[in-house]
Amino acid sequence: SKDINDPGAISHKVWKFDPNCKIWSRIRDMKHPRRSFGFVACNNQLFVLGGRDNHDRIMAHVERYDAETEKWVGVRSMTEARAGLAASEYNGCIWVAGGLIDSANIATKSVEYYNYQHDTWTQVSGMRYTLAYGVMVPVETRLYLVGGAIGLQDSQLSGSGRQVEVWDSANQNWALASTMSKPRHAHAAACLRGDTPQTAYLIVLGGMSTKHNSALDRVECWRVWDNHWVPGIAQLPQPLAGHVALVLPAHVPG
């Protein structure tokens, strides 16, 4: 993230939010300042993955924050340095996909996952195209990869994508699950879960669109079980890109 006292600097500061008291408080700084990194909560621990450092170098380094000891510690690095990657917890492991691998906007289509119990990274089948600034979201028992800036292998990114890909664990590859109406990258996405798998929704918010050359205020909502895009979803109050979305439990006070 950027340091507000020096907008040109990359920050290593971290804050936490208490939704009950509605208060932000500072926790211990990361060891390495970074931007355009992945951020995942897994097993009551926080992980930051890759990104760019103060010298604009793309990183493979991974840090873990243990809330009990209140310390950041380095863990095994990814097999490939990447920034603008998609990252998520899935089946007890941390998955990462795509990302920029050099300063010329060259992206990768590689995918790997981290087993925190064994401190190991395992590569799986890559995507069908290179991708950066996509969003990875688990919904029920499946892992989805939503949108992103796509391109051909070993070439510069060509534009925002509409695709929603799903990891096929049986065949160990990625398959097209659906298509959004608006191409976008650097957006946010989250899963809204109901009482049954039939009431699980994937909501996609804002982002950048190379087609429109601007940030978006458009929100799309996909009912996963029957591949139905729900019409009439309210727009964001303003166009947003480079943001995140988080679903809080229903019992948290409003």
TrEMBL record:
SUPFAM superfamilies per the UniProt record, alphabetical: Kelch motif
Entries under InterPro entries matching the protein: Kelch-typ_b-propeller (IPR015915), Kelch_1 (IPR006652)
SMART domains named among the record's database cross-references: Kelch (SM00612)
Entry keyword Metal-binding: no
Domain of life, per lineage: Eukaryota
UniProt keyword annotations, A-Z: Kelch repeat
The keyword Secreted is annotated on this UniProt entry: no
Protein's name in the database: Uncharacterized protein
Organism (species): Graphocephala atropunctata
Source organism phylogeny: Eukaryota, Metazoa, Ecdysozoa, Arthropoda, Hexapoda
